[in-house]
Design a protein that fits this description.
Helices cover 81% and strands 4% of the residues. Helix 5 packs antiparallel against helix 6. The protein has three domains: 104 residues, no CATH class; 152 residues, Four Helix Bundle (Hemerythrin (Met), subunit A) (Up-down Bundle), CATH 1.20.120; 38 residues. The chain is mostly helical and 322 residues long. The chain starts with 7 loop residues before the first strand and ends with a helix.
Amino acid sequence: MAELEIRKSFKIFASRSSLRRRVAYSLALVRLILVPVILLSVYYLFRMGVIVDRIVNVDAPVATLAEQASVEMLDARRAERNFFLLGDPAYIQVNRQAVGRVKQILSNIGDLVPAEQRVTRPALENVNAYELHFAAAVNLAEKGGTTAVERLQEVVRAYERDLDNLLKQAARKNRAKLVEDLRSQANSFDAEITNTIEAGDPTLRQVTPDLQTSSQQVLQLSSELERRSWARLHWDHDAARRLLRRSEWVLSIVSALTIVLSVWISFVLPRQVVKPLSDLKEAVDHAAAGNYLIDFELRGEGEVVALARSVDNLITHIRQRV
């Protein structure tokens, strides 16, 4: 009795493209998934680099330069007072060098931050005005009028007595009060010296207010530059922190989506490639069991469909021979 055979149909569906090309497309797609993560990382690194570069090369140097401008202006004022106090021409050169450094510093600030030229330009104008007023004061001092040495010595002795009395009372005062009194005493000494110089040489009264005004303007503008620079530095620091937090969130979300998409592709693409091969394997196993009544429904093109046609021809040939 002939063995009962069951006719069975197998559907072999494959893409129109070749299997090699589909594998290449799959690998390329898996790699392209990583592109958003890489691009976002590069973008945030670039943004962070711009902020850090501005902090290191602009904001911090400008704040330091503005502080140096104030220090140099105070050195110029100190040399000015020493010249009028002692009459030593060496202090004229010290004053000129300090004023020259102030000009150079303000020019450097204007080059680093062009937007600050609206502050550096008036500051340079006041420095030039101070330089002219000091030159006029030097001419007046050299032409006539001498410093009242005896009166200055009396002011110094009075200052020493007041300082001694203050230190004797230090045991009965707290540290903050003592520092405040010392600062007040030093300020009063400077005022007394200035008044004594003007009293000893009345011709200097014409120039001293202008020197005071121009130098004070330079100090105020330098302080304004320093304050604005530190404000920009703090703002950039906060911007860097906000950018860091944003990059963490964005990269975390994109990375999670990338992982999900990668997992999905790793399941979908292999199924599209392996499913036709699995169906073909099942057909071959069915024929190997002696069941040659097999029909193939082939759709598509490529290596899998060509292999399925060859297997169909082979099974048909074997069925005819048997």
